[in-house]
């Protein structure tokens, strides 16, 4: 096997080690490829497809986060076909997911001139906020199923395996095994899933309470008296917010 591989990205030559992804090769020469599901410290799965590029000789667009370089490869990162694909992905996300706390995606929407009203009849995902523990809330109306939280809870960091995909098709979301509350799972509340979430679907409890109008004194009282043994079916804080 060759020690180095030379390819061109947007007509610029770059030499990298075998096994390098197109995304990392592009970074070496300052070419920016947008990413959403990708995270430097999580396993790349090529789920969102916002990072697709056009590779000469390939019938389909190639996800740069998992696509490996090869000798003589010719890559174009901003062709009309690529930008149309990225724009459509952004429009589909905007039609069904609350992206109000996803700044990176909002920037991409502007950059790619995505029409967020393109699919007016799309069904918006609106599951209830899950408030079942004293540490953080789960608001899956904001979840884009990037899998970062699942990966970091599993082999990428914590080896806890408390969460995974549940449901099928449109009903797919992140959940716990047997739909248990987080305190009933193997979750150790390390917070790493919250740290890698790009959309605010996972958020520290105190931050969420402050955003919903609770005072510091109210939060302290809730922490002392009510936050020790919540279940998914007993969510008085979420109920209070909904009533207000």
Describe this structure in words.
The structure is a single chain. The chain has 2 domains: 1-124, Ubiquitin-like (UB roll) (Roll); 136-243, 2-Layer Sandwich (Alpha-Beta Plaits). The model is unreliable at 230-237 (pLDDT under 50). Helices cover 28% and strands 14% of the residues. Strand 7 (163-166) and strand 8 (173-176) form a beta hairpin. It is α+β, with helices and mostly antiparallel strands. The strands form 3 sheets. Strands 2-1-5-3-4 form a 5-stranded mixed sheet, sandwiched between helices.
How are the SSEs ordered, and which strands pair?
Elements: E1 5-9, E2 12-16, H1 22-28, E3 52-55, E4 62-63, E5 74-76, H2 80-96, H3 103-111, E6 136-138, H4 148-153, E7 163-166, E8 173-176, H5 192-196, E9 202-204, H6 205-211, H7 216-225, H8 236-243
Parallel strand pairs: 1-5
Antiparallel strand pairs: 1-2, 3-4, 3-5, 6-9, 7-8
Kindly state the percentage of residues in helix. Answer: 25-40%
Envelope shape? globular
Structural class: alpha+beta
Beta content comes to 5-15%
Strand order of the largest sheet: 2-1-5-3-4
Could you describe the largest sheet, including whether it forms a barrel?
Answer: 5 strands, mixed
Name the CATH class of the largest domain.
Answer: Alpha Beta
Task: Please name the CATH architecture of the largest domain.
Answer: Roll
Instruction: Output the radius of gyration.
Output: 21 Å
Total DSSP E strands: 9
Mean pLDDT, to the nearest integer, reads 89
Quickly count the helices.
Answer: 8
Low-confidence stretches: 230-237
Helices and strands, in order, run as EEHEEEHHEHEEHEHHH
Give the total of domains: 2
Terminal residue distance:
65 Å
> What name is given to the CATH topology of the largest domain?
Ubiquitin-like (UB roll)
């Amino acid at each position: 096997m060759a020690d180095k591989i030379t390819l061109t990205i947007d007509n610029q030559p770059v030499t990298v080690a075998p096994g390098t992804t197109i995304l990392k090769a592009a970074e070496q020469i300052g070419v920016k490829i947008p990413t959403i599901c990708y995270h430097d410290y999580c396993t790349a799965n090529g789920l969102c497809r916002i990072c697709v590029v056009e590779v000469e000789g390939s019938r389909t667009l190639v996800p740069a986060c998992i696509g490996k370089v090869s000798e003589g490869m010719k890559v174009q990162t901003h062709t009309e076909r690529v930008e149309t694909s990225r724009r459509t992905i952004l429009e589909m996300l905007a039609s069904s997911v609350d992206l109000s706390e996803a700044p990176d995606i909002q920037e991409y929407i502007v950059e790619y001139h995505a029409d967020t009203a393109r699919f007016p009849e799309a069904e918006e995902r609106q599951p209830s906020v899950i408030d079942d523990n004293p540490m953080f809330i789960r608001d899956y109306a904001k979840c884009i199923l990037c899998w970062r939280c699942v990966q970091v809870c599993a082999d990428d960091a914590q080896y806890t395996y408390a969460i995974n995909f549940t449901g099928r098709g449109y009903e797919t979301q992140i959940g716990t095994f047997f739909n248990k509350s987080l305190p009933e799972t193997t979750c150790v509340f390390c917070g790493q899933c919250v740290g890698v979430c790009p959309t605010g679907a996972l958020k520290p409890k105190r931050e969420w309470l402050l955003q919903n109008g609770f005072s510091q004194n109210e939060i302290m009282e809730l922490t002392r008296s009510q936050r020790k043994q919540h279940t998914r079916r007993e969510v008085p804080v979420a109920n209070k917010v909904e009533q207000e």
